[in-house]
């Protein structure tokens, strides 16, 4: 005789909470698994599905045309000449953090056209 899923669910519904906890513990012991691990992995999958909304623009190298890169950094960040120069020389460094995808792509394009190497994370 085979027991259906509906019959199993009805049996669970008739149990007290303590009886269900004892049954889960017995199943974990018999099958060598943990119900907690299944819950943790399910949460990680749900977090991975979320789309990233904030991006960081990372300058990895200033390239050959350092002056153009400094100008691009100044226009994007509003920094002074000294600060922009220091930023270009400190690569890898975050030029902007927590920006939208569109803004990150535009900044990356501007910096790469100036000769810099850029990553978006």
TrEMBL record:
Keywords: Ribonucleoprotein, Ribosomal protein. InterPro entries: Ribosomal_bL12, Ribosomal_bL12_C, Ribosomal_bL12_C/ClpS-like, Ribosomal_bL12_oligo, Ribosomal_bL12_oligo_N_sf. The keyword Ribonucleoprotein applies. Residues 4-48 form the Large ribosomal subunit protein bL12 oligomerization domain. Pfam families: Ribosomal_L12, Ribosomal_L12_N. GO terms for cellular component: ribosome. Residues 55-121 form the Large ribosomal subunit protein bL12 C-terminal domain. Homodimer. Part of the ribosomal stalk of the 50S ribosomal subunit. Forms a multimeric L10(L12)X complex, where L10 forms an elongated spine to which 2 to 4 L12 dimers bind in a sequential fashion. Binds GTP-bound translation factors. Belongs to the bacterial ribosomal protein bL12 family. Forms part of the ribosomal stalk which helps the ribosome interact with GTP-bound translation factors. Is thus essential for accurate translation. This is Large ribosomal subunit protein bL12. It comes from Shewanella glacialipiscicola. The lineage of its organism: Bacteria, Pseudomonadati, Pseudomonadota, Gammaproteobacteria, Alteromonadales.
């Amino acid at each position: 005789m085979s027991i259906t899923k509906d019959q199993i669910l009805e049996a669970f519904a008739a149990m007290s909470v303590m009886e269900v906890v004892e049954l889960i513990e017995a199943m974990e012991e018999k099958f060598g698994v943990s119900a907690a691990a299944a819950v943790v992995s399910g949460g990680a999958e749900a977090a991975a599905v979320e789309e990233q909304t904030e991006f960081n623009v990372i300058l990895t190298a200033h390239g050959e045309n350092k002056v153009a890169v400094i100008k691009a950094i100044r226009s994007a960040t509003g920094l002074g000449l000294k600060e922009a120069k220091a930023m270009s020389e400190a690569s890898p460094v975050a030029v902007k953090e927590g920006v939208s995808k569109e803004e990150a792509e535009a900044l990356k394009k501007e910096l790469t056209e100036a000769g810099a190497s850029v990553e978006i994370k």
